[in-house]
Amino acid sequence: MHYKTFKTDRLLLRPTSEEDANLIYQLLNTPKWLQYIGDRNIRSLEDAKAYIQNKMTPQLKRLGYGNYTVIRKEDQAKMGTCGIYDREGVKGVDIGFAFLPEFEKKGFAYEAAFKLMNVFFSEFGIHRIQAYTSKKNQASQKLLEKLGLKQTGTTFLPDDKEELLVYRISNTKE
């Protein structure tokens, strides 16, 4: 099966695969990931490959979209991930993003997320996108607001003890 990749002026977004295990290993062990998203117990490249196979690939196969590796065109640097997620036990889809520290605060997350949101509204028939973020993660909150999402309340995701802020955007009149 061939899955879509997307391009922006500076970025290539392609579905995350096992060849991205090193990026996933690094990303899931960054201080911000551990603080705001949580420890996924990725302690080796093998763990990262298994995480991709078990947590990312099934949704891609089921829906044709999921987690994308964000690559800088100019030098092919793998900088982070951005994706649209259909979580078990949660109604609707949500957008998420995470970047290695050296690629933060350069507009890459906005560029990647803006592209995916537009594609999902126009090509995948999705009419509403949500996002969840820690109350402490002000950088994520600012980015979601810049993308046009509005905070609508709080929630707990399945199997998570932290109350999260909920943001939403819709391309229909609700």
From TrEMBL:
Mind listing the UniProt keywords for this protein, alphabetically? Transferase
- Pfam families, from UniProt? Acetyltransf_3
Q: Which residues form the N-acetyltransferase domain?
A: 11-172
Top-level taxon in the UniProt lineage: Bacteria
UniProt key word Ion transport: no
> Cross-referenced InterPro entries, in alphabetical order?
Acyl_CoA_acyltransferase (IPR016181), GNAT_dom (IPR000182), N-acetyltransferase (IPR051531)
Name of the molecule in the record: GNAT family N-acetyltransferase
What is the species listed in this Swiss-Prot or TrEMBL entry?
Marixanthomonas spongiae
